Amino acid sequence: MQQFDWVRWIDDVFLDAQTPRYVVDTLVNFLGLDQATGSRNQITHLCDAHFSTDEAGGEVIAIKLSEARQIVLVPRDASTLSEIQLFAHLVDLGIQLAQRRQQLITESLLDPLTGLLNRRGWDAYFESQRAVSGVIAFLDIDDFKGLNLEIGYQSADDRLARFGRILRDSVRATDCVCRWGGDEFVIFFSDANEDGVRSRLQDVSRHSEAVIGRSFSFGAVDLPLDRIERGAWSQAISRAQQAMRKGDR
């Protein structure tokens, strides 16, 4: 392939783009559309670029950024049209690649049955926090093995998925819910207190029993941390699990 001047930038996008936003931001800067930087580069002598919400027509090339926004490239003359088309095509591929990478990362953090975070997602959540303060609760569905024997594994999995939705609908966007494994779950209630969490979980347990035929046992402990330390919140989970087993609800 002919080595155009802008190929190095494309290579960087394919190598480094973890999110579509990264591709879009670097593209805007690369085309000189970021008024804050006023960047100009070797591709600007081939075309004029501007943002548009209208469908592109004639001898212009559009790079779609979203459903309502695109960048239109207008070749300076007919001789540059094919090069600009190639450039736009590769940028589109870069955006698609970043979207796929982001999707795969997201999927790797979720439990496929319940849609809740898995342990990797739980770790990622706490690693993204600078400091946390709240309550950690450990939950175990009551006699779930008996439910498996009673209605079969497939039907029990359906109940488990419904239970995941119950938990997700029972917390705030600032809280964090994780399927710890099997019929065990962990919830971090941000900026909450133990008494409030216990009262809320007792209500959720009664709702769970009405919806899926099973309540759950739980234990809850405070987690005030000025900085994130893996050992500290791991110990809090163990304490919450012990509190559940002791029936300290």
Notes on the structure:
This protein is of the alpha+beta class and 249 residues long. The protein folds into two domains: 7-108, no CATH class; 119-246, Reverse transcriptase/Diguanylate cyclase domain (Alpha-Beta Plaits), CATH 3.30.70. 48% of the residues lie in helices and 20% in strands. It has eight helices and seven strands, in the order ααβββααβααββαβα. The strands form two sheets. A four-stranded antiparallel β-sheet has the order 5-6-4-7, sandwiched between helices. A hairpin with a 5-residue loop joins β2 and β3. The longest helix has 28 residues, at 81-108. The chain is elongated, with a radius of gyration of 26 Å. The chain starts with 6 loop residues before the first helix and ends with a helix. The model has no long low-confidence stretch (mean pLDDT 88).
Keywords:
Alpha-Beta Plaits, alpha+beta, 8 helices, 4-stranded antiparallel β-sheet, 249 residues
SSE map:
Elements: H1 7-16, H2 20-30, E1 47-52, E2 61-64, E3 70-75, H3 81-108, H4 119-127, E4 132-141, H5 144-151, H6 153-169, E5 176-181, E6 184-190, H7 194-212, E7 216-225, H8 230-246
Antiparallel strand pairs: 1-3, 2-3, 4-6, 4-7, 5-6
Helix pairs in contact: 1-3, 2-3, 5-6, 6-7
